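name: query_chain
kind: protein
chains: 1
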Amino acid sequence: MVTQTWFYDAILYMYALSLLFYFADFSNPNRSAKRMGTGLLLFVWVLQTGYLISSLAAHASLSAFSMFETLFIFAWLLVTVSLAISRFFRIELFVFFVNVLGFAVLALNMFSKPGLSPALSHWNIKDELLFIHISLAVAGYAAFVVSAVFSGMYLFLHRRLKEKKWSQRMQRLPSLERMDHFAFVSVLIGAPLMLMTISLGIVWISIQGDYALFLDPKVLNSWFVLLAYVFYLFQRMLLKSPGNRLALWNLGAFVIMLANFVLTNYYSTFHQWS
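structure:
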């Protein structure tokens, strides 16, 4: 299996070592540990990029996308975003938490079956359209993960400040205003991507003429995900709701998104992975 090659193992080992350096810096601020963690993470990104390019080049058809490759792209996007945040905003705690999630995705992905493709064989559409559909969905999910991490950090800091339990580690967190802003921007990116993903599915269903698919659990829950994030934006931009309420709602929307990604795959008639 592809996941058992030495190249994939090297990515995991480098990733784990990078997280150890980041955790060491988080526990006891150390500039050398931070540089080592960032350097290793950049090397992980290079290895992931090379692995991804070689994997995609090996496909004779883009419709051969498997769950393994989709999750690998998702993990690659998380590393890319975390490196950008580390470079321009220097929020080490955010980088650490996001990459813990990214590492978990890569590790769990070893148990998937790379030979399986999404059960979309009766999607009689062009490979390019399928590629765009999958790419937009993965990018949207990555943006929502980033937003959820910022909201979780926001709630943690808000509660500690409210209880007047200050610690030296909290000084390394960005301000509540910045975390609220970054969570908002991430949703601003993810929501349009989700809308475009759903739109492609609607176009195909309309052309296919099988209108019963509009009631498919995956399709219905995708609408719930989009509406949850749209309501978050409505509260943020028009109602001017307080940050802690927005953060709670954002995490609730993230739970709906997880249900859409994990649970409804077992009940969907045309979005199954096995």
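note: DSSP finds eight helices and no strands in the chain.
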